[in-house]
Amino acid sequence: MSIWDSSFNTLWLSLCGAFFVIFRIWLTEVKLHKELGSKRGHTSRFISLFFFIAMLLNFENNVFTLISVVGAPAMLMAFFAFDVPYYIKDVPQIKEKKFWLIIERLTMHPPAVFFAVYFYAYARLDFYLTLFTIPKFCGALILVIGPLFLFDPRVIKREDWPRGPACIIGAILSIVGNLLFYFQKKMANIDIITELGIEGLL
After folding, report:
1. Distances (CA, A) of 65 to 44, 72, 112, 156
2. Could you tell me the residue ranges of all domains in the chain?
3. Which residues, other chains included, contact 47 with Cβ-Cβ below 8 Å and sequence gap of 6+?
4. Alpha-carbon span 115 to 120, nearest angstrom
5. CA–CA separation, 22 vs 20, rounded Å?
6. Is the pLDDT assigned to residue 79 strictly greater than 90?
């Protein structure tokens, strides 16, 4: 099952996803390896990569699409809390590779946020409800919580304290908010779910 209707050209979406997966890896691990330093381990950069993997897979009903949806509120908060001050205070002081650093930021939080706005506004109800299954939800938690506690220096090394706790709170709020939205949709449409015969829901 896909978020798109049959008329949507998914080939171009997959090609864009493949390009940005390669581009983001090259950008963070090669081009800006020195400039980003330990910031390469920030959870947002993993979620951004998962988003483009979801795009590569045409936003099918899978764990990467679920991460893109659930992580969107945290990405939105991160954009206003971290990116906006970065553009205002840090960018004017950058001497080298300013262009690439701006591109790196622009392709990190905004794409996932724009997708989530579209998703919540236009996604089919049956797709949304079947997206939240226990196996996919557990897989999403592992893929997001893992990098947060294994690689994110704001948590494991307390860099830029107290941004580490802020990231954890943001992740919790994103999860709780999406679960509340999901259960509200599920309860409000229980008759539709029964009629469609959808199985495997939480």
Report:
1. 15, 11, 10, 27
2. 10-196
3. 67, 68, 71, 74, 75, 112, 144
4. 9
5. 5
6. no
Taking only the tens place, the pLDDT of each residue in 10-48 is 788 889 999 999 999 999 999 999 998 888 888 889 989
Task: Single out the residue of 132, 114, 146, 129 nearest to residue 43, CA to CA.
Answer: 146
- Whole-number Å distance between alpha carbons of 80 and 47: 17
The residue with tokens 């993993």 is: 46
Longest dimension (CA), the chain: 61
CA 169 to centroid of chain Cα atoms: 16
Sequential DSSP letters for 32-99: THHHHGGGGG-HHHHHHHHHHHHHHTTTBSSHHHHHHHHTHHHHHHHIIIIIHHIIIIIGGG--SSHH
